[in-house]
Amino acid sequence: ETGVTQTPRHLVMGMTNKKSLKCEQHLGHNAMYWYKQSAKKPLELMFVYSLEERVENNSVPSRFSPECPNSSHLFLHLHTLQPEDSALYLCASSQDTRGYGYTFGSGTRLTVV
Amino acid sequence: ELKVEQNPLFLSMQEGKNYTIYCNYSTTSDRLYWYRQDPGKSLESLFVLLSNGAVKQEGRLMASLDTKARLSTLHITAAVHDLSATYFCAVYTGGFKTIFGAGTRLFVKA
Fold first, then answer.
1. Which of A59, B2, B43, B95 could crosslink B35 through cysteines, CB 3.0-4.6 Å?
2. Contact between chains at B42 and A107 (C-beta distance less than 8 A)
3. DSSP per-residue letters across B24-49
4. By the CB < 8 Å criterion, does A69 face chain B?
């Protein structure tokens, strides 16, 4: 375990479903991130939260909705996804956002059918 | 827009051999990271390079950073099978962003 825990590890959902991904860190980090890793693309930054406030939304479709209720927890709410949204979704945390590197969770492998 | 290019994207090498993975980036940055990802697993931080000329070594891996050339290298010495993984470089661009390269998939043959 890296200190960043993601659940579930695997998720299969239909295009009309609503589901949520959860991320938890107890490293005392102040920034949390969602990344998308697809088979044929580099890691894509989706959202950044710093001290529970969203500071970056990287032109992500509204069918992805993040939530950060406190500095230890981060959610990604999913609804009406498309098959091309199938990917590995990685949560990461860092001490702050000044670029000292990330600690990644194990990821959620999402399949949209 | 910042581009981070790694090469090669795929590398198959024999155990005991040496090789270098290259990471080029297109804008100024003084902060670069290397990560390792095993199949089905998350990314593990290997090195954080914070200044021009920085060199870090861990076991058979050595990373260096030349900010003037906008180039980082990850050198593998006497490869072993356990090093088989995908290696990513990532460049900090300021603010909240770090841009990742496409990754180099390394396979070390026994």
1. B43
2. yes
3. EESS--S-EEEEEE-TTS-EEEEEEE
4. no
